[in-house]
Specification:
154 residues, mainly beta, six-stranded antiparallel sheet, four-stranded antiparallel sheet, 51% strand
Amino acid sequence: MDELKMILEGTYRNPTTGRDEIRCIRCDASGHLTGTPALASAFAVGALSADGSVTTDAVDLGEEHGYTLLLARKSGVASKQEAMEIQSSIDGVRWLPAAGIYPDENTGSHEPPNGSDSFTVQGRPIGRFVRIAFKNGNTAQTELVLELAALAGV
C-alpha cells in the first residue's frame, strides 16, 4: 500500500518585495518533507545588546550538497536598524554574502525598516559552508533565535 502524501500550500511574505507568495510543500502523512532534501539548524543566541552583532557557527552542507535555496529566520524583539545576512564560503574561511534569489537582489540579506519580531531572508549557496550574520538595532534582544534551512531542488 502506498504511503499517504500531502501537498501543503502556504503563504510566504517576501520581505524584499512585500508581496505574498504561494509555496507548495510536499509532505508525508506525518508532516515530514518528501521529495526535497532539507537540512535545518537552530541557534539560540539568547540576549544580545543594542547594536550588538552575532555570527552563527558554520553549517557544512557537504562537499557535493545539491542544496539550491537557503532560508534564514530571525525570532526575537523588533529592533530598528537590525539586519540579517546569509553568508556562504567555499572553504569555511573566506565568507561572502550568499547570492540573492531574484534578479534584482545581489545578496541574501534584509534590513526591515522598523525592525520586526521575526523575518525571513532567502539566498542561494555559493559554497559548501553557510552561516547567518545578524546585526541588532537599537533595542536589546532577550531571547534571540536564528534558524537556517537548506532545501534542494527549489
